[in-house]
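User: Fold this; tokens only.

Assistant: Input:
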Amino acid sequence: MVPAFNQSYNKERESLTEIPTDIDANGFENIYLNYNQISHFPREAFPNPNTWLMLFLNHNEISEIESQAFLGMLKLTDLELRHNKLTKLKAGMFDGLTALTNLQLGYNQIAEIDIGALNIAPLEDLVLRNNLLTLLTAEMLRDLPALKNLLVEENRLQTLESDVLSSRQSLYVSLSDPWITDVEKDNPWQCDERLCC
């Protein structure tokens, strides 16, 4: 039986160690795989995910996402991968996400972003808070022309290139750190005139 649209597929807290292969993707819009022990996201893991709008993979152990793992998810608008073990965003990782507007990558261990890794033209909201980034460049964000909100607080950022801001008039960047009390003494940023520290 094909589920009605707007139904969710829920396998949260099932102690899964792999992406389930029994998902009958037809008709589902929201896929919940939160709070499992999934560590690897293989290429084309799901058959025909063309009706999906939201995919939730928060609170897993994901440390590897294969290139082109999300191919076929043509309608996916929201992808959440918070609280995993990703260390690097690699080129090709998010290929095929032609409708994605919201990408949540907070609370991982991301220290590197390859040029071309964020090749998601419609993306508006990118959350990278609580990772291990030390550098953020315009080149890393070059394939995100629709980006409106960039949340990078609680990283180890020391340098934010001025080009990140100069080429985007309406970009909101959140750098807040509630533990900084003495801005002049403890501020780790190398700032130019476009940043207020």
